[in-house]
Structure prediction request, 282 residues.
Amino acid sequence: MAELLAGFGCFTHAVVRAVPRSLATQALRSGNLEVDPLKVQQEQEDYVSVLRQRLGLEVIELPADETLPDCVFVEDAAVVCENTALITRPGAKSRRGETEAMKRALTELDLNIVEMTDETATLDGGDVLFTGREFFVGLSKRTNQKGAEILADTFKDYAVSTVPVQQGLHLKSCCTMAGPDLIAIGSSEAAQKALKIMQQMSDHKYDKLTLPDDLAANCIYMNLPNKGHVLLHCTPEEFPESAKVFEKLKDHMLIPVSNQEKGKVDGALTCCSVLINKKSKI
Ligand code: GLY
Prediction:
């Protein structure tokens, strides 16, 4: 059985990107809710402040690019595990240019860079769930089988299984890790089906934290020196019933973080950072 990565959830650095003004009108979205440009800026500032001030991570903030309306959603541009960074080939053509700045930032952090250059492959980081033991890759409108194969070739130490994404933008639109071996999962039929597939694929028995709202199951788990288990999760204003589920967790430092405006363009909490553990720092 695959061992849990020592230091799962330990992070020292985060790469984020400023919100372009073009996000409000041009970012890709499945709905048609109006985005308030000032609120979305504030939301991102608060998010970055949690990472930098509250949690003490070293935050590298890339400048916004007005020609890349979705560029704040950095998670889709790279998958980092230990010292290796896979620079992805995002599924949406309008987002492919986002990887350049990410590659530069991760190169400066001295990570081993692997680039997904195959023109038949697509992969968004939002479809990649790393449990600390293995990867699950959502096959979605954005990520295809070839993308999942290249991820498997890149991170050879880990098993990689694919999961069809039947609802929502990405696999992590309804599930993330909420702790070591603890999968946060939404309640919709599609989310529960995805969980069932992951359970069938794995030789490990994960615990689960079921949230009434799929989007609330996108949370960020960290294990930080002097802080222990930390969980960034939805606010009670956005998802009151799901927030109550998080509030029952006794072993985590709980930090509600608003995602209301970014949620209108299908962004979630994990979308807005690439987290890195530069081991020499801890
Ligand atoms: N707006 C996020 C995406 O569609 O990729």
In short: The first helix runs from residue 23 to 26. The longest strand covers residues 134-139. Residues 27-29, 70, 73, 92, 169, 265-267 surround glycine (CB under 6 Å).
